[in-house]
Design goal:
Length: 258
């Protein structure tokens, strides 16, 4: 059964409690974080409106990062996009392919939110959800989360005429359902991210075959060089043996026993 986050941006107060809780709960390095609050201002002075983009993994159903990952380090589970950093080769394809610019490289490997898999698996909740003081974040079964998001949008339409749900269909359906007060572009969120960006086709039809071909050629090349080196070495040994035999037969004092 698919799980999902509910993120109500009409309730987010920008306190960054989720940022700190995520960082501490997941014991992230100093230079790494899975959530970033980015302040946005739109409109023309003096008619300005402001808000926050709660930038985090969107857990796409059609996750391009999973599609291009050559090692299986990125994979789908319970509707969320998980990451096994131990299996990451550090190729960076996920960083290049994500339409939301979520994965980053940290210590030579991919780094991103995995939905607090260990914590949830032990019966807890994601750290960000547990600590949100404004109740802007919830976590649960995706169908229930989506239904609650629709109820909230209906309840705030008078105050936010452009209020809408984001994530119901984008990228195949997201594991992060957002309640937005306005069009997604006002928070620098792509209104319609591509389901299968060109980089996926590039990986499947160009990069992967070339990489495999290069690996095969490298292995073949190493084998040929090994054979040549062994032949040269054997030829040198035969030459030394012939020289020693010639010295003994000629009575060379340097080759006779003392």
């Amino acid at each position: 059964m698919a799980s999902a986050f509910l993120l109500d941006m009409t309730r987010c107060i920008g306190c960054e409690a989720c940022v700190l809780a995520c960082k501490a709960g997941n014991q992230l390095p100093v230079d790494t974080q899975y959530i970033e609050l980015i302040e946005h201002t739109s409109g023309t002075f003096p008619d300005l409106t402001g808000g926050f983009q709660n930038h985090r993994c969107y857990h796409c159903a059609d996750a391009t990062c999973v599609a291009v990952c050559p090692t299986g380090a990125l994979f789908k589970e319970d509707g969320l996009t998980r990451l096994d950093r131990d299996a990451c080769s550090g190729c960076g394809y996920c960083v290049q392919s994500c339409p939301y610019e979520v994965p980053v490289m940290s210590d030579g490997r991919s780094s991103k939110c995995d939905g607090c898999a260990a914590n949830v698996g032990a019966g807890g909740s994601p750290w960000c959800v547990t600590t949100c003081p404004a109740k802007a974040l919830e976590f649960g079964v995706r169908d229930a989360i989506l239904a609650k998001a629709k109820e909230r949008v209906a309840a705030i339409k008078d105050r936010y005429p452009k209020a809408q749900i984001y994530g119901e269909t984008q990228a195949g359906g997201l594991g992060l359902i957002l309640v937005l007060p306005d069009d997604p572009e006002t928070l620098d969120i792509p209104a319609d991210p591509p389901d299968a960006p060109a980089v996926v086709d590039l990986w499947k039809h160009v990069v992967q075959p070339v990489s495999m071909g290069a690996t095969v050629l490298a292995a073949a090349g190493a084998g040929v060089l090994g054979i040549i080196a062994r032949r040269n070495h054997m030829a040198e040994l035969r030459e030394v043996e012939e020289t020693e035999k010639a010295g003994v037969s000629s009575g060379d004092p340097d080759t006779e026993d003392v």
